[in-house]
Design brief:
By secondary structure, the chain is mainly α. It folds into 3 domains: about 1-35 and about 45-165, no CATH class; about 170-250; about 255-425, no CATH class. About 60% of the residues lie in helices and about 0% in strands. It has a two-stranded antiparallel ribbon. Helix 15 (about 310-325) packs antiparallel against helix 16 (about 330-350) and helix 17 (about 355-370) runs antiparallel to helix 18. It is globular. The two termini are about 40 Å apart.
């Protein structure tokens, strides 16, 4: 009897996910969107944003019409994203016949996958972050409640449904690939890490920002260069079959600039692809500066604190990317909140207030970013002018909130590594003095050591 009870509580979070998926399907009937029906597409759940950009290229990929995949400049999704997301849409519409059955399956499937992912990530970090960072194992009750609280938190925040509706599901995959890459780097497996970053480029062009992780965490400068080249090569192999086509137009897309963005303040009205390299430089600069600061404290990244780099550095890249972007949409926030939720729950499980405070600030500011996301969208998309308040800007721009998120993540990283004024003043410690030392794997007792 105790075994059954133990199994029930241990996997109860999975039952919660399934129940949420059922209610999500039941409470959200398929309704046509008149503005999308004008495109001539029928039989879809038009609650999914940017649906035509996903389904049509998917058909072209598997129909052998690779020259037609990127003929629309606005299609900036990577080939792997078109295959994965388009596959779900194809199965719902063409195999199951669309309607309430097909699109009910699509919503239920996506919500279930995200819900299970949320719980599994909390389990991953519970087992990775807590024992190695604190030297302590959680009590049984706490182990059971970590995934439950995480999943319930995602449900309360409507993360699972919102992620389905906005349609950019593979952004989560990019961040997961980055986190796995950091984990591989910390264990000395640079080739695996490089391949993972390369795969992220196949999902999203901005997956190339993950190269920053390879540069920041490689133990030697030459290794940083080699691993970066490998990752870009992997990503290029995924894209090259489409880029060489005469109809490839993704590189000619011009982004309109929100007036409240960084670029809007600088007087930029149009953002070309070539300017993305400037944005990439800003992201790399922020991450490298932070990396130099905490590596002065821990030269070889061999301490028990380094496991926190697995979630925090990728989230810092994502947050910095949003701050330096020209546009803003809610799924930017949903992606980061998806990972901050289990991270906050895991941190609370140990009662480490010095970690919880910056994490809570990062989470809340990311949440607030959505409160004014629509302001200013009329200036960059004429089809958004019908949305209430889209033609006005408020004082509290989403970029301000994401600047707070970025600052909180930087603060958290420096706090985890105990970076203080004394450490920052050391002139003789830096990345150039690193030796290739593997992460410590000894079983020393660190229960009495402060870790923040």
């Amino acid at each position: 009897m105790k075994t059954v009870q133990y199994a029930f509580w241990r996997f109860s979070w999975v039952l919660i996910v399934l129940v949420v998926a059922i209610f999500s399907v039941w409470g959200n009937p398929v309704e046509p969107n008149p503005s999308v029906l004008q495109t001539g597409l029928t039989g879809f759940d038009f609650n999914i944003v940017d649906l035509p950009q996903i389904y049509e290229p998917f058909q072209n990929i598997f129909g052998g019409q690779w020259d037609a995949v990127y003929t629309v400049p606005r299609n900036q999704m990577g080939p792997l994203q078109l295959v994965v997301s388009g596959g779900v849409l194809w199965f719902a519409r063409d195999v199951l016949g669309g309607g309430d059955v097909g699109w009910g399956f699509a919503r239920g499937f996506v919500v279930t996958v995200f819900g299970l992912g949320l719980g599994l990530i909390s389990l991953w970090w519970r087992r990775t972050l807590l024992p190695e960072a604190t030297g302590k194992q959680l009590e049984y009750r706490t182990q059971v409640w970590v995934p439950i609280v995480t999943v319930v938190g995602g449900v309360v925040l409507f993360l699972l449904d919102d992620l389905y509706v906005w349609g950019h599901w593979c952004q989560l995959i990019v961040v997961v690939l980055w986190m796995l890459s950091v984990q591989r780097l910390l264990s000395g497996r640079w080739l695996y890490a490089s391949i993972l970053v390369g795969l992220s480029i196949g999902f999203e062009p901005w997956g190339v920002f993950g190269v920053t992780l390879l540069i920041a965490l490689s133990q030697r400068k030459l290794l940083a260069v080699v691993s970066s080249v490998v990752s870009v090569a992997v990503g290029s192999l995924i894209w090259v079959g489409f880029v060489v086509q005469p109809g490839f137009a993704a590189g000619s897309f011009v982004w309109q600039v929100r007036p409240d963005s960084l670029w809007g303040f600088l007087g930029v009205d149009e953002f070309f692809w070539s300017m993305r390299f400037v944005q990439a430089g800003l992201v790399v600069l922020v991450v490298l500066v932070v990396t130099v600061l905490f590596r002065r404290q821990d030269h070889t990244l061999s301490s028990k604190h380094t496991v926190w780099l697995i979630p925090l550095l990728p989230l810092l890249i994502m947050s910095t990317r949003v701050v330096t972007d020209t546009i803003y949409y809610p799924y930017y926030s949903f992606t980061i909140m998806f990972f901050l939720t289990p991270l906050l729950v895991v941190a609370m499980a140990t009662g480490q207030m010095r970690i919880i405070v910056p994490l809570a600030i990062a989470f809340y500011s990311t949440f607030l970013a959505n409160s004014n996301w629509v302001a200013g969208t009329c200036a960059i998309r004429l089809d958004a002018c019908a949305i209430p308040h889209s033609d006005t800007l408020t004082l509290f721009s989403p970029y301000i909130f994401f600047a707070i998120t970025t600052s909180a993540l930087v603060w958290l990283l420096l706090k985890v590594f105990n970076v203080n004024s004394t450490i920052l003043a050391k002139p003789d410690s830096g990345i150039s003095h690193l030796e290739e030392t593997p992460v410590a794997t000894d079983n020393r007792d660190v229960t009495s050591e402060p870790w923040v």
